[in-house]
Amino acid sequence: MAAMNAKTLVVRNGTLIDGSGKPSARNDAIVIEGNRIKSVGALPPDILLEDRRNVEVIDAGGQWIMPGLIDAHCHVSYGYPMIKGEGKGKGTTRPEFSTLKSARSVQKVLRSGVTGISVPGGTWFTDVGIRDAIRLGLMVGPRMYVAGRMIVTYGCIEDDEPSWEGTPDHSIGKLCNSADEMVTEVRRQGKHGVNFIKMADSRGGESQMLAKEEISAVVAEAHRRNLRVGIHSRGAGSTRAAAEAGVDWIIHADLATDRDLEAVAKGGMPIIPTATFLATVVELGKTVGAEQVQLDITRMKRHFDLLCELMHKARKLGIKLLVGTDTGNNSFTRYGELHAKELEIFVKYGGYSPMEAIVAATRDNAFAIGLEGQVGEITPGKLADIIVLSKDPIADITVLQGGKHISWVIKDGKPVDLEPHEEMLAFQHAAE
Ligand SMILES: [Zn+2]
């Protein structure tokens, strides 16, 4: 594990939004020891603020304090930007370059106030490597909970090569055309350190590509090995099958009928709608070059509208929604910029209050990084992932976006250096 902060860290003053849904309140002192929150409330008498050798103080006077954001759907190792020698698709033919780029990308994510990400699919075992480098203290970055290459059958999303090619090793899909092949892949990925298995049905939900028995086989094997299962499912049939097979979360579910959603409610798993990607495509569609990506704006708009309806239906049925953006899925979903846009969509179109959206993106999203009950709330005993903002996100939920109003990021009890170094800026330029 990374070295602990030797000093006691105290966040004084400011307004506290603790992630539990309780109304904002005046903060006196949040005391952090090691990587955990020790106390919240009045400054304990044994903490001497003048003792600068042992105590570090952050004065958040006039500012807002809340748990670090979690993005429940963020890709790290896809092959963008396209440069010479890389693959043309989302995969990447050069893992060495991709790994370094991924390492840089996650630092941008952290500096924008996102202290945890769930990574539903990537290339090679890049994401496992980046997660471990952060854990071991080789570099700073958010907490990462990662899948490997997503399990697909012929015709699923990310099965982009002709059948005589299959899915090459640099693809983000891994072709498995039977339950046996899928189980073998679960075992292989488990051996190499993934936290969860990503399955993927058809691209737009136009047809059901995975049999319920196949999903069940993956769930049984993954759960036996302490791995979770997330599935890309836009279609009605696949959402119902996934719910009945007991996956841990469903991504999208926009074409699900009321009956399918009842199956999800019965299964008790959350949905990660991920409207941000669609909103970004619809909003930027006109400015993004047509040669860069095939954009079907009308179809995307329809999916977006369905997801907004889903947000309302889910509440009625008691289905929990988690907050994810699909950052890193394409060259226009840039790191550090979109992670809080989903909260704006939840508020604007989903019937959520700003406080409810914040709870979803912090306390509830902790589930998507395997740390439910341990992070995402500012209460004693929790892991100390905290951000300080110069503007009130309850008054305007958009101030969370792009890290523009971030004053401090504390991850695992340690303040993060928010100024990237010169050479990193040069790299950023070269890579974009
Ligand atoms: Zn995705």
Poorly predicted spans = none
The helix content is 25-40%
Q: Please give the alpha-carbon distance between the first and last residues.
A: 32 Å
Bound small molecules, by name, code or SMILES, are:
zinc ion
Describe this structure in words.
The chain is 30% helix and 18% strand. It is an alpha/beta fold and 432 residues long. Strands 3-2-7-17-18-19 form a six-stranded mixed beta sheet, with no helix packed on it. A four-stranded mixed beta sheet has the order 5-4-1-6, with no helix packed on it. A four-stranded parallel beta sheet has the order 13-14-15-16. The chain is globular and about 70 Å long. The two termini are 32 Å apart. Zinc ion (ZN) binds next to loops. Zinc ion is lined by residues 73, 75, 120, 326, 329.
Concise summary:
This protein is α/β, with parallel strands linked by helices and 432 residues long. The chain contains 11 helices and 19 strands. A 6-stranded mixed sheet has the order 3-2-7-17-18-19, with no helix packed on it. The protein has a 4-stranded mixed sheet with strand order 5-4-1-6, with no helix packed on it.
Topology record:
Layout: E1 8-12, E2 15-16, E3 25-26, E4 29-33, E5 36-41, E6 55-59, E7 64-67, E8 69-71, H1 95-111, E9 114-119, H2 126-135, E10 143-146, E11 150-152, E12 173-175, H3 179-191, E13 196-200, H4 212-224, E14 228-233, H5 236-245, E15 249-252, H6 258-267, E16 271-272, H7 275-284, H8 297-317, H9 341-349, H10 354-361, E17 386-389, E18 406-411, E19 414-415, H11 422-431
Parallel strand pairs: 1-6, 2-7, 8-9, 9-10, 11-12, 13-14, 14-15, 15-16
Antiparallel strand pairs: 1-4, 2-3, 4-5, 7-17, 17-18, 18-19
Helix pairs in contact: 1-2, 3-4, 4-5, 5-6, 7-8, 9-10
